[in-house]
Amino acid sequence: MNLSKFEQTIVIATRNKGKAKEFESLFDKKGYTIKTLLDYPEVPDVEETGDTFQENALLKAETIAKEFGTLVLADDSGLVVKALHGQPGVYSARYAGEEKNDAKNNAKLLIELADMTSSDRQASFHCSLALAKPGTESLVIDGELEGVIAGVPKGDNGFGYDSLFYVPEKGRTLAELSENEKNEISHRAVALKKLETVLDDWLSI
Hints:
Helices cover 31% and strands 22% of the residues. The chain has 205 residues and is of the alpha/beta class. It has a single domain (9-203), classed as Maf protein (Alpha-Beta Complex), CATH 3.90.950. Strand 6 (165-167) and strand 7 form a beta hairpin. The model is unreliable at 2-6 (pLDDT under 50).
């Protein structure tokens, strides 16, 4: 498939509408027509075989950019817990099994940290963004949000590990924050702000 006739098209390599929405405003401002993988249901998911967030983001972005012949933005994100030597890391979505069950993932995390004090429960959400287009060296940007894993889940606004991820500066978990509050401080927001500062230079290459 080739989308090169749409010079101002960017494909956001996700089927998650919420995630895509976070990226849209940046590229809307630059006049891009925004597509997601929901627009191309026939395209299979790229298998995430990398050992790091950056590797997985690059793999998705470059594979789809090569197939479509257009600009592609991909991300890989997850939870990193210091006391667990970086786990669940790139396996965050399937920490408790391949079925990607949030409740089971959270339960496993709490079991792993059951005997640890708050000082040992430090964690961060990490996001790696990869921007790829044919004939250009890909751009990779990282963003992080620091926090602590709470003893019990709180809040109903999030997904994944949000109800366990306590943000000290806010005094609440991510799942207790409004969508706007979360989008201002999230690891993805941090990465997007960094991306915006270098995007025009990279696009001009």
